[in-house]
Every structure is written in C-alpha cells, then in structure tokens.
Please model this.
Amino acid sequence: MALPGPAFYDQAAVFESYMQHRAQAAAPNNTMEGPLLRELLGDVQGQDVLDLGCGAGGFGSELLADGAASYLGVDGSANMVAQARKQLQSDTRAQVVQADLQTWPMPAARFSRVTARLVLHYLPALEPLLQAVHAALRPGGRLVFSVEHPVITCCDRAWRGQGLRQEWIVDDYFRTGERETDWIGSRVRKYHRTVEDHFLALQACGFMVESLREGRPERARFQDDADFERRQRIPLFLVMAAHKAPASAEAPAG
Ligand SMILES: C[S@@+](CC[C@H](N)C(=O)[O-])C[C@H]1O[C@@H](n2cnc3c(N)ncnc32)[C@H](O)[C@@H]1O
Model:
C-alpha cells in the first residue's frame, strides 16, 4: 500500500535510508536541486523564512547561518520534525511545527520568503496551498520551490534493470493526478502535474512568476564524470521562483 508523504517518512527504515541518501555529496539534491534553489532564493539576510515540508532541518541551519532573521519549518513527519528540532535547537530564531500542510492554518502577512523543497508533489491539490502562501507573504515577498520534474513524476514504472537506472519512460504526461512509486524500500503516494500546471497555478493564485529552471547539471558540482554524463540525460527537478506584488503595485490606480 502506498503511503502519503509524512507517513512514508515516519517508517524507521525509510527515514534512515533517506537520511543516508541525503548525506551523500553526490546526491542529486546536493549537486543540482539545492544549489539551484539557493541561487533563485538569493540573499536571505534579515528575511523571515517559512519552509514548507522542512524535512530534517539542514536547510534551516543553512539559511540561519546565512543571516535569516527567523525560520519557521513545517513538516508532517514526526521523524523529520524531531530531527529538525534537534538540528536547530540552539538557535532562538528557529521554530519547527509538526502539521499537515493541507490543514495547517498559515499565518497571514508574516513572511518575506517561503520555500518548499521537494514537498509539493506529495499534495493532491496545489492551488489551496499557493493561495495560503500568497496570503502568508508580505507584499513583495517571494516563493521559491522545487518539485520532482514532471517528466519523472508522470510515469511510475520502476527501473527493473541492473544497477543505476539507464532508461526513463515519459508517458501519461497529461493524465495528471495520483501516482504510486517504489522508493528507498517502500511505496509512496505522489501527485503528477505538468510543467504548465505549476506555472498556471502560480499565476491563478496571484503570483508573478520570475523564474522556471530544470536543474541543469553543472560540471563543477560533480566529482565523477560518469555521474555528470548520466545526469545530462533527463531533468530530475523543476525549480520555480515567484513573488507577490510589492505594496506600491497593489495600490489602486488613480
Ligand atoms: C523529500 S522530503 C524533503 C524535505 C526537505 N524539504 C528537504 O529538501 O530536505 C519531503 C518532505 O515533505 C514532507 N511532507 C510531505 N507531505 C506533507 C504534508 N501533507 N504536510 C506536511 N509535510 C509533508 C515529508 O514529511 C518530508 O519531510
């Protein structure tokens, strides 16, 4: 049976393998997704950051070390929240809340930056969350998120060959919705959306889209030639940045 995101990560063996996977320097999160998301997020000095699906708190530490004024992480997994609280306990600017993002009452007009790394594809609906994020941002505030790339989420047929995956199937691309996938020893439920779905959902929720990127691998971030060559075959991530109109733009004309 496929589990939703938080319950999936609350399995002890899954959590352990996830933490091991993320700690590897060559993990795609460290070579492609993280650096790109950080580039789009830009300087966080003095920013009040809300991190949706914060996971184990590593990103929170990074943002606070880079001068964020405050950091609120929210995650539905008890394992992730316990780890994030441990990771951030010595920093009075940090708070971590355990909640389901589908029901968590997001405080209005509180944040200048909202991040969501690799969590939105666990949510059945994007627009209710994006509307809440828009309301949670102050005027001019920015949202930066990453998701598994839609060419990956569209088709859930697992690689049955030997060793590292060498073939990918892009199929059922426009049949959006629920998918079940085997990953790190268990079955997880995710939701597939097209690239344009993300773009249009941002616009429908009042955001100005700033950037759409696909995690193109950069040679300097890879220690291994073969890994770099393989990562040029298919995009793993979609990373987008958008902002809420600044206060002056919200004032009625005339
Ligand atoms: C792939 S992990 C990414 C964690 C972190 N953002 C990172 O990049 O290191 C996805 C996270 O999303 C969380 N998550 C998934 N669905 C959620 C939901 N409905 N409410 C809250 N958290 C959720 C999971 O518990 C998990 O910690």
Notes: The mean pLDDT is 95. The chain has one domain: 5-250. The chain has ten helices and nine strands.
